[in-house]
Amino acid sequence: MKAGLLSKGGNFMDELSQSAKAEFVHHVFSNIAGKYDTMNSVLSFYQHKVWRDVAMAKMAVRRGNRCLDVATGTGDWAIALADEVGDTGRVVGLDFCEEMLDVARPKVAAAGIGAYTKLMSGNAMELPFADDEFDVVTIGFALRNVPDVQVVLNEMTRVAKPGGMVVSLELSKPTWEPFRSLYYFYFYRILPKIGKLVVGDAEPYEWLPRSLITFPDRFKLAEMFQKAGLERVAHYPLTGGICALHMGYKPMVSGGDQ
Ligand SMILES: C[S@@+](CC[C@H](N)C(=O)[O-])C[C@H]1O[C@@H](n2cnc3c(N)ncnc32)[C@H](O)[C@@H]1O
After folding, report:
1. Which atom in ligand 1 lies closest to the alpha carbon of residue 139?
2. Any idea where the domains of the chain sit in the sequence?
3. For domain 15-174+216-249, is the CATH number 2.60.40.1120?
4. How much distance in Å is there from the Cα of 235 to the middle of ligand 1?
5. CB of 243 closer than 6 A to ligand 1?
6. pTM recorded for the entire structure
7. N or C: more exposed end of the chain, with fewer CB within 10 A?
8. From edge to edge, which strands make up the β-sheet containing 243-249?
């Protein structure tokens, strides 16, 4: 099922069962784990670092906070969170791909945050935590990859404390022409070729643009945050709408339609 799946073309991925999509995504990230950080910087022209900095500035995470980074991958957002919470806080980075976590582990050790930063295996669709555990729950560039975006947002909301924050950074759909057409030319035509050239395998970087096609736009994703029971939902386009930051807060008194 895994290799060559995208060559079937069309919206084949949309027709896959949830487990088949998860299996395919797992296969993609285990294959590119070693090159993921480099490719991220090259393909986004280092913008992903800017986007994370904007997110951290808007979130204003506090010392001592308990944070969960869902689908942490190679750990960049978990490390940024750990820098803010300090040794009186706690950060958990969760991912279902061990190969990605293997890249994150030495980075966490080198940052000297290992005592209060835990990397663990787990599924975003079924978070292995009790209700109301975290002050901050983040997900970066991974909602496009999960089998059901609403289920993951519901789960992130469930494990956030009342008053806690749920945050997503994700690729999005620019609306302003001619920027939109120029960007889509790069994203759908050029990026997969660069990906194939550097990684030596076409599939991962054919999947990246395809994963955006059916992903909700910025406004629809904000509605899904609200549907998860979050309030004061705010969303910000970044770099002309290539990326979007979404933030929402779990009500102090529960009562959303989760
Ligand atoms: C594009 S990477 C993003 C990694 C990291 N968050 C970042 O900002 O660079 C997507 C990550 O989502 C993870 N992922 C996808 N679906 C998942 C799921 N259902 N449960 C846990 N992790 C998942 C993949 O293993 C991969 O590490």
Report:
1. 6
2. 15-174+216-249
3. no
4. 21
5. no
6. 0.91
7. N
8. 117-121, 90-95, 66-70, 134-140, 160-171, 243-249, 231-238
